[in-house]
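Researcher: Structure prediction, please.
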Amino acid sequence: MEGKKKLLLAFICLILAIIFLFPILILLLNSFKPIKEIYQSVLALPKTFSMDNYINAFRELDYFTSIRNSFIVTGGVTAANVLFCSMAAWVLVRYQTKTSQVIFGMFSVAVLVPFQCVMLPLLKLMGNLHMVNMPGLMVVNLGFSTSMSIILFHGFIKNVPLELEEAAAIDGASLARIFFTIVMPLIKGISATVAILNAIMLWNDFLLPSLVINKAGWQTLPLKTYLFFGTYMKKWNLGSAALVMAIIPVIIFYIFCQKYIIKGVTEGAIKG
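Model: Predicted structure follows.
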């Protein structure tokens, strides 16, 4: 009976994997087709596998400039988010006061506020502060990604033994040394999770950059990819190739951080 349950569970997981991976497979196949074959059948295999779409998309995307901009925005905001939010969550966990509870409650409520509700006032404020540029985009993205990250760190840091920090404090360690040498190594798992969630969100973000970035040479990959899907003409072949090139860095980043996520989840389960 137990073997049948495992077999059924494996079958369900296989079906779910196929459902999730099928759109990516279709995208990959169409990235090798000329536009004529895509219009004939989206699901058919390419008659000949050609790299022309990737070569042309690479050129029209100005790929190196676009991916550099995406790396600057995504990497800068993600690194700052992991650092500042982990520090903030640590303070909120270790210093339990009415003020800290109110602050954490504000972060929790902020998660429920959609970006569209504050989009227009925010853009007006950014214009008044002369922040309609890439640094302004990074500051706003950091602000919007803070709430969820602090909530995730807050829940995980509760499992970090307080005795380790107290022992280090008795030995004369400063708060900064306690955090970076004791706390940070113990929260690698959740740090990787937060980094991946933020990196994927920032890398794929289109709405905010489309409203803020208004200068040639500043566009991120999603903005440049959108140029293939115009009102009167859609270059599905080049767009498919561009999308494949856009998701490859995120996949590589996820593969690199996956072991830390698994380790963190395992440690959290043991501590719980």
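Model: The longest helix spans residues 236-271.
Researcher: Thanks, that helps.
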